[in-house]
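Q: I'm writing a short explainer about Ohr subfamily peroxiredoxin for a general audience and would like to include a description of its predicted shape. Could you first generate the structure from this sequence?
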Amino acid sequence: MTIAVEKVLYTARATANGGRDGKVATDDGKLDVVVVPPAEMGGSGNGTNPEQLFAAGYAACFHSALKVVARKARLDQDVMDGSTVTAEVGIGPINGGSGYGLEVALVVSLPGLDGPVAEDLVAKAHQVCPYSNATRGNIKVDLKVA
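A: Of course. Here's the predicted structure. Afterward I'll give you a sentence or two in plain language.
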């Protein structure tokens, strides 16, 4: 199923040169990084990699979705104090080695909420987060409440 955006509010633009062993920069200059394969994949590891960039974006986006869902549920915003989202992005071979795929684990810490309320909030955030919507049905995404 394809998700159609009704109205584009913002477009991010980044250009890569050299692929996994090169450089990535945004057109506004706010992000300009060297990308290098991790040592676990035969690279030097002396730079960031696409999986780290994806993890950072997903974690930030999901945390914002949690805050939106908490606000809509009329939860006291103090319960979000100290909350964190850690995105763990794994990469590995698929289809007998004919390509590579990703999987994600989102580890959410909501110390101000009890288990069932936290799990409900995480499930609802997973329905509204743009990264979750983009990955749904495409890659494995595990949700964990820490």
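A: For your explainer, you could say: The first strand starts at residue 14 and ends at 17.
Q: Perfect, that's easy to follow.
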